[in-house]
Each structure stands twice: as structure tokens, then as C-alpha cells.
Specification:
This protein is α/β, with parallel strands linked by helices and about 375 residues long. About 40% of the residues lie in helices and about 15% in strands. It folds into two domains: about 190 residues, UDP-N-acetylmuramoyl-L-alanine:D-glutamate ligase; about 180 residues, Class II aldolase/adducin N-terminal domain (L-fuculose-1-phosphate Aldolase).
């Protein structure tokens, strides 16, 4: 049955890369090796599914030697820590142990999620480390190993080399893991299909902020002509935790809201630490008024400023030409605008300078409040 399935696929399609998963027995592995050689498959990624994250055995013990033979014909393999210990005979407790084990196994990337989320690649007698940009979470996730090896296979099929394939796949996994979600009471699922637009958190206050921004963004981009307010560099919107002091306590878009034809769309996901420029505006504004915890940048024009004035928004500005050396523009500019305003401003703008686009920033209590103010402006644009 397995042989017929392989033959059918190979006959019907042009295969550029192949990944193996759970093979269970020595007989099945031997058949796979035979077919790999028959069809001269070069881009073979072997996920040697032997031990699950739960430490349950998934491969017959008498099949380990056959699995090693399969690894010898693979371009790259992707064992987890437990599997790497079996394949290398090395007890792995650190990243250095991972490197020693990888060199003994041969061309492979050892997944380090069980230690510190650093993956170790051994390729052509050189060792590379790929660290995760997200914090370790005390959450049981399902499907990470399978998704990682599948991503590497896809990259190889696109013509990337092994090192680039692992790098791109690592970033893909970080993005998928930070958006994990639950279906029932079992292990959480990673979001490989971009179902969510926010990172996932177990902290209720952070979740409320992420949801507030998500609602605000969806409200904004769903409105016809919202693209008219988006600057060339795109828009970002952020919201801070109560009493925030650092940029990683402010959630925002990792990319931007961008113009697409006569519409707008979200590029990136909503995460804490996702925005630096708007984050600095918010942190500075909070020093003067704690309850003001959100801001969004929109396109500058004299017409938009006139509309803000007609809406009785308090407007203030700063001049980039007067910016001192050694300061952060958004921190200095926001502080200057607030200090020079009669009352706390709803709008802070600057007219730009060489290489810097003129910009308007809308300030408010939360992301929904900011977007509501912004949409009032949009309704009055001709």
C-alpha cells in the first residue's frame, strides 16, 4: 500500500522536496530508503519521529538502526532533544551538548524547544545557532516539530539553501507559536495558517489590550476610503499597559496598516513590543497623562488639520528642525508638543524634513477611542 502511494505521487507530480514523518517500523523505513534511491530524491528532510514531546515512544526500538540509515541518505534531519540523544548517544543538557550531538549525527538541525528554544544546525562540518525571538512559554503545544520540518522542506523546494531554509523556518515557527490557540482542553495548537492576527498570552490584561487593538484595526480597515488616511510609510497603532514604562509593555503592529489599491490591510501581527515609534509617543504622553495609553499615526495634510480643528480636537506640533542631537525624535517631539499645548492634545503633528515624511498622530485613551477619533476625520474628507 505505501509503495503504491509513493509510486502514484511520484508518477503524477513533479517533486522538488520530500519530508518524512512518523514511520513506526523498520520495514516501512527500509521501503522508504529504497524509494528515495529509486527516484533519486536529493531534497529529503527526515523528521525522525521517535519520541514525542510528551516523551512517548513513537518508533519501534528495533527500528532505530534503520532510522540511522535513512538519515544517511537525507539532506537534513530534524530530531528533537530526546531523539538526538538516542541517535547520538549523548546526554543533552545544554546548547553545547546539542552541538556535540549534532556533529555526531551528521547534517541535522536539533530542535531546542525542550531546553532554551535555540535550534542547532550542523551542516557541512559547521555549526550554526538559531535563537528564538519569543519568550519561552509554560504551555504545551502540539505540532511544532512537524511544522518546522515541513517548513524547511518547503523552503528547499523553493530553491533556498539549507542555512537559509532553517533561518526562514525558524522565523515562521516563532510567528506561529506566538499565535497559538486552543481547541478543547488538550494541547494548544500553533497557528501555521495565520488564523489569528494577535500574539497569544495567558495574561488577562495583556489579552484585553490585544483585543482592543484588534477591534480598532478591524473597525478602521473595514471602512470605505480608510486608505485615504494612511501615509506612505503606513500606519501603526499602539496601546500600553497601565503604568507602562518600557516599549515591551506597549502592544502594536509588528508591520503596518498599508494601502492596497483603494483599500487598506494589515501587514504583520499585533504583539507587545511591536511598535517603536508609536510606542515612544505613548510612553511620553503617559508621563503627562496616565490615562492616555494609545496613539496612531495618519497621513499629514493641511485639509486633515483643518478637519481636526473643526472637530474641536486640541492640536499641537513640533519642529524636527529644532531637534537636539542625541535624542529620540518621538520622545522629544511628543514632549515638546505637549508642553506647548493649551490643554492635553488630541493631535500631534510635524511637517517633516529631508527624508522624513510629515505626519499626524492621534492620541486617545485606548485603541478604539483613537480609531473612533480617526474615523470622524475620515467622514469629513471630501
Amino acid at each position: 500500500m505505501i509503495e503504491k502511494q509513493i509510486d502514484s505521487v511520484m508518477y503524477d507530480m513533479s517533486i522538488k522536496a520530500v519530508k518524512t514523518g512518523m514511520l513506526a517500523s523498520a520495514n516501512v523505513i527500509a521501503l522508504i530508503i529504497e524509494k528515495i534511491r529509486e527516484y533519486k530524491i536529493e531534497n529529503l528532510v527526515v523528521d525522525p519521529v521517535m519520541v514525542a514531546t510528551s516523551t512517548d515512544r513513537l518508533l519501534d526500538e528495533d527500528a532505530v538502526e534503520e532510522m540511522k540509515k535513512l538519515l544517511s541518505v537525507a539532506k537534513i534531519s530534524t530530531p528533537n532533544i530526546y531523539e538526538a540523544e538516542i541517535l547520538s548517544g549523548i546526554d543533552i543538557k545544554s546548547t553545547e551538548d546539542m552541538e556535540r550531538a549534532a556533529s555526531r549525527i551528521g547534517n541535522c538541525v536539533i530542535k531546542g524547544g525542550h531546553i532554551n528554544a535555540t535550534d542547532v544546525l550542523f551542516w557541512n562540518n559547521k555549526t550554526y545557532r538559531f535563537e528564538s525571538r519569543i519568550r519561552m512559554r509554560n504551555v504545551r503545544l502540539h505540532g511544532t516539530g512537524c511544522a518546522f520540518s515541513a517548513a524547511i522542506t518547503s523552503c528547499l523546494a523553493k530553491g533556498m539553501d539549507v542555512i537559509e531554509s532553517v533561518r526562514v523556518s525558524k522565523e515562521f515557527m516563532d510567528n506561529s507559536i506566538e499565535r497559538y490557540f486552543s481547541v478543547g482542553s488538550g494541547s494548544r495548537l500553533i497557528d501555521v495558517g495565520n488564523i489569528k492576527i494577535t500574539e497569544t498570552t495567558e495574561d488577562l490584561e495583556r489579552e484585553r489590550i490585544l483585543n482592543n487593538i484588534e477591534t480598532a484595526i478591524e473597525r478602521f480597515i473595514s471602512v470605505r476610503d480608510s486608505y485615504k488616511l494612511i501615509p506612505q510609510v503606513g500606519s501603526n497603532i499602539g496601546m500600553a499597559l497601565k503604568g507602562a514604562k518600557r516599549l515591551n509593555e506597549i502592544a502594536g503592529i509588528s508591520g503596518r496598516i498599508i494601502r492596497v489599491n483603494k483599500g487598506s490591510m494589515l501587514s504583520g501581527i499585533i504583539r507587545f513590543g511591536g511598535t517603536l515609534h508609536i510606542g515612544r509617543v505613548i510612553l511620553t504622553a503617559m508621563k503627562f497623562k496616565n490615562e492616555v495609553r494609545s496613539a496612531m499615526n495618519i497621513r499629514y495634510s493641511k485639509n486633515i488639520l483643518d478637519i481636526c480643528s473643526n472637530l474641536n480636537y486640541r492640536i499641537s506640533k513640533f519642529d524636527r528642525g529644532k531637534e537636539p542631537d542625541g535624542v529620540k525624535t518621538m520622545e522629544w517631539g511628543t514632549e515638546e508638543a505637549i508642553k506647548n499645548s493649551e490643554g492635553f492634545p488630541d493631535v500631534i503633528y510635524d511637517t517633516g524634513c529631508k527624508g522624513k515624511e510629515a505626519m499626524i498622530r492621534i492620541i486617545g485613551r485606548d485603541a478604539i477611542d483613537v480609531v473612533n477619533k480617526t474615523l470622524k476625520i475620515l467622514r469629513l474628507i471630501e
